[in-house]
Amino acid sequence: VSTHRVLIVESAGQQFAIPAAALQGLIRVSIGQIETVEGRSVATVGERPVPIASLAGLVGLGDVAVKAEGSCLPVAVLKSPGGGVGIAVDGFVTEIEAVVKSLRGGAERVKTFGGAILTDDGSVVLVLDPGEIIERFRTVKSGSVVRAEKALLPKQTPTILVADDSVTTRTLEKSILEAHGYQVALAVDGEEALHMLRSEPMDLAIVDLQMPRLDGFQLIEQMKKDPRLAKMPVIIVSSLESREEKERGLALGADAYIIKRKFDHKGLLEAIGQIL
User: Fold this and answer.
1) In sequence order, what are the residues at sequence separation of 6 or more whose Cβ sits closer than 8 angstroms to the Cβ of residue 134?
2) pLDDT tens-digit profile of 46-85?
3) CA 69, 73, 79: angle at the middle one, nearest 5?
4) How many domains does the chain divide into?
5) Are 184 and 264 in a shared domain?
6) Which of 143, 118, 166 has the alpha carbon at shortest distance from 64?
7) Does the predicted model carry a pTM greater than 0.90?
8) Is 163 in the same domain as 132?
9) Is there a contact between 7 and 18 (Cβ–Cβ < 8 Å)?
10) How confident is the model at residue 19 (pLDDT cuts 50, 70, 90)?
11) CA distance 274 to 276
12) In what order do the strands lie in the sheet with 256-259?
């Protein structure tokens, strides 16, 4: 029984501990950086090539894809006389001080592990034997070509700004949009809308043209001059029906023009769906 500082990592749904003294460093490697050289995955870190293998393959869990964190793989680099070797894992969990106990009941014959620890929640976590892992790194083919599996990112709910001085129109559009899963922010005129667009993240703006302080035309003009807002989609919903006004709005950069007299919530939702 001895106390060691260990890094707990996750691989193939299981947790393992790596002695901190065996670590050269922790890195996150972009999937695009990983190449296959002579049947082994290699990533260039700085100016130095680092061979990488999946922990799951090294401990006998099979050729399981490593789950990427966004577009990067968490890699624990072990110290090695011939240069560091990278162990790709699904995630770094925590670093703790723990009592490492010897394995019993035949488990001690599994050379990959040098002991076990008991975590605060009562879980038993096997501690890797760094020397044996490095040896297996050089001799075992399983996991030597790292397969990455990108994690599905949670779908973000788009936020839409509705700018209209009519409380009836704002309320109607807000209820329609929220009923179809959008987040909605409201502005009572163009000046307030411009301030909100510059200070809060939005995905699309629905703009009336006849508003006090800053009308819809001026608002769109200001948006297109601002590099942060220039590419934001804009839908005009206005009671102005003339061809000249519609052409002006679209020429300023609006993506769609809906006339209030002909307002149909399906048309609005279809326009939003096509744009987003």
Assistant:
1) 78, 80, 85
2) 778 899 999 999 998 887 888 887 778 889 999 998 788 9
3) 140
4) 2
5) yes
6) 143
7) no
8) no
9) yes
10) very high
11) 6
12) 183-187, 159-163, 204-207, 234-238, 256-259
